[in-house]
């Protein structure tokens, strides 16, 4: 009766997980594969807000049974489901297969299209892909606030240029004191990437450009005093 009840309610995520766990314990890998592939096809969610566990189950059984092709495709699938921790797993598999060099560039291209830009940029930063990260930040200048310090080590002039242009754009759009303070925080970030003198010069430039915005000039003056100490 218990077995019948479980199968009658198999589309309930928690129940499917119970059945899959039981099948793994019994080494009934064919049943595990069937239930997990079915869940992926039906887009059955995970437990509450957790990621759907089905591809992770498949990864486990393919690793245990030595099914390398299936394991590779499953790791790829998980990575493209935005679990970027799986980048290194896939890289390691490709390295073991001796194909990493030929797969690397295409993989990055695919990830650039599949991942949200903030997740793609974070992955590039973790992997030390600073040239690619610079290209992304050029397209999405707001990211310089997060990666400017790392980028300035290798590409100081390019990074400073992105910072200045982004701050000028944000200052132009600022309309109240709260936004003026945000601009000043950006200038502080700019100074902290090794461009203190440039940041102070930018303050002077903005103060002249927006002399008719006394609140902005006041905030800029306060930031200049802080940077000058």
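Sequence proposed for the structure above (229 residues):
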């Amino acid at each position: 009766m218990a077995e019948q009840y479980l199968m009658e309610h198999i589309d309930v995520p928690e129940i499917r997980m119970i059945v899959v766990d039981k099948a793994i314990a019994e080494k009934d890998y064919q049943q595990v594969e069937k239930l997990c592939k079915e869940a992926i096809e039906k887009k059955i969610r995970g437990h509450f807000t957790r990621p759907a566990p089905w591809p992770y189950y498949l990864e486990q059984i393919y690793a245990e049974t030595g099914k390398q092709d299936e394991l590779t495709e499953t790791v790829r699938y998980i990575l493209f489901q935005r679990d970027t921790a799986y980048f290194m797993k896939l890289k390691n598999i490709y390295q073991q297969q001796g194909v990493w060099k030929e797969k690397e560039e295409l993989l990055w291209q695919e990830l650039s299209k599949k991942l949200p830009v903030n997740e793609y940029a974070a992955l590039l930063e973790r992997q030390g892909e600073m040239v690619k990260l610079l290209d992304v930040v050029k397209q999405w200048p707001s990211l310089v606030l997060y990666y400017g310090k790392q980028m300035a080590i290798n590409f100081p002039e390019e990074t400073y240029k992105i910072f200045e242009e982004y701050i000028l754009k944000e200052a132009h759009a600022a309309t109240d004191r709260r936004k003026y303070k945000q601009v000043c925080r950006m200038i502080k970030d700019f100074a902290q990437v090794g461009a203190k003198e440039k940041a102070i010069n930018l303050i002077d430039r903005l103060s002249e450009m927006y002399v008719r915005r006394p609140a902005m000039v006041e905030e800029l003056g306060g930031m200049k005093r802080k940077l000058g100490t």
